[in-house]
Each structure stands twice: as C-alpha cells, then as structure tokens.
Amino acid sequence: MHKIILIGYMAVGKTKIGELLSKKMQIEAIDLDRVIEMETDLSIPNIFKQKGEIYFRKIEHKIFKEIVASEKELIISTGGGTPCYANNHLLLNGKDVTSIYLKASIEVIFNRLKSEKKQRPLVANQSEANLKEFIAKHLFERSYFYNQATFTINVDNKSPEDIVEEIAGLLN
Questions:
Q1: Is this model's pTM higher than 0.85 or not?
Q2: Which pick of 3, 27, 38, 40 has the fewest CB atoms within 10 Å?
Q3: What is the CA 139 to chain-centroid distance, rounded?
Q4: CB atoms within 10 A of CB 72
Q5: Could you report the per-residue pLDDT of 75-130, keeping only the tens digit for each?
Q6: What letter does residue 158 receive in the DSSP assignment?
Q7: What DSSP assignment string belongs to 88-131?
Q8: How many C-beta atoms lie closer than 10 Å to residue 147's C-beta?
C-alpha cells in the first residue's frame, strides 16, 4: 500500500497538512510524534527530559520503520528531525512511498516557533535573539536529508488548503 510521508522543519505545518490531505484523499493520516507518545505513554518534551534525545531517536526510528513497512495506505507526518537520524532518509523513497518536503523560509519558521517554543524541546531554551540563528544552522545541517524527498513544496505565503491542492496535483 502507498505511503505519503510529509517531512520538513518544525512548525512548517506537517500535521495540519497531513490532516487536510487525509480528508481530501480519504487516506488515514498519522502523526509520528503522536504515535510515539501513545507507545511510550510520555509526551515528546517528557521523553527528551526523562530519557534524552538518543532514546527518543531510537524509538522514533523503530516506530517509523514499522509504519512505513506496514500494509496500510497512510499519510505520515514526521517530526522535524525524523529524516536526519538512523538512516531514516533511506525510507523516504522506494516502492509505494512518496515523500514531500514542506519547505519554509527561516523567517516563516522563526515567526511560527517564537510563540510555541515551550512545546518544542529542541528550541525551548533558545532566547528569541538566538532562535533565528539556531533555525538557520539547523536547516543547513538538515538540508541534505530533507532534499532526499520525492518532491519539495515551498509553503511560504500559502494557505494549508493551497498546499494540499499542490500536493494532490503532484500525486495525480
């Protein structure tokens, strides 16, 4: 069965786009972070706090691999770091898999993240002054992995509905 995998940095709209795309295409959507939280019975911030990022990345890889290998047709919204660890980027393309990189500018990401830092373990301790530089550095480090996606869609100045239409157009 076909998998559509949404990747991209924090706050680019992967979960929202996944939900809307699910309604449009009548395919179940799952959010990888929510699945991890259900499996571990911990929130993502608590996993980072109690067990650390390495533990989180191991669990993330195991669950992501299982979901991609499953027989179900799914839309999968990943975490921002998912493609960058444990060779997860190798799962982004292949038989019955289409991946879409939702690409946003540093400015757009910064404006979205500054109001929701507390829910984001990797940026929770960044001052607003350092946040933009942190995002820029992170995007640079992750760009190789994000660019492994089948398609790239720039999400700047587009409504979630417009992005879903663009994705649907690519998939037909």
A1: yes
A2: 38
A3: 13
A4: 11
A5: 999 999 999 999 999 999 988 999 999 999 999 999 999 888 777 878 888 888 89
A6: -
A7: GGGGSSBTTEEEEEEE--HHHHHHHHTTSGGG-TTTTT--HHHH
A8: 13
